[in-house]
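Hi V.,

You were right to ask for the full record rather than a summary. Here it is.
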Amino acid sequence: MTLMKPAVLLCALTAFLFAASPAHATFLTVNGVDSSDGGFMNIISASSSFDSGTQNYTIHLTAKETSATESYQGVGLALQFIYPADGSNVTNGNGFNYLGGGTWENAADTEEFQFVSVTPYSSVSQSMSRALTDIPQNGTSGSFTAGPLSTGDSIPMVQLGDFAPLQSSSDFALTFHAILGGGPRFNVGASFVAVPEPSSLILAALGGIGLLMSIRRRRCLAR
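Predicted structure:
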């Protein structure tokens, strides 16, 4: 098995996923950059809805590993940026400010959205530290930008698990709550990443320790 560094980017794509409900729809863009591990994760279906009672947006998605030969371990979907959108779900402004805790707010303090949950998968709060993740700290949607995220920020990371060639995920739902400004449309910018299995990390650590011990032994023999 080829070892992968923590949270290597898997995809280089922008998937435009139109919502089913035209009245209060959300819109998702998945962004990434090329990586040496390919880029075969993709979103193959999406729909969304808005509940005016709870002020919750729900985005239903399915992910797929589109390569016939590659496998990925510990695939995650990092939720990074939110952009305002017009009535046609097209980004019409720069990204919101990230407040931490999975919460984004626009510059005018009139719209604020918080990531609530993912079903049936789980999510973690992932540090943006370069030692742990290698995803863009600035986002783009058309001619508009978002970020930069600070290396000290922690962002929601949906844990999708392992993917064999051509494997699809279970359908999953992302829920966002409108703390302010319920009803507006918005776009979500995200990145697919992969994290190595714990056994791979242990083997890599043991390899590093062994190399260090070998170097020290050679130095002792040379004295």
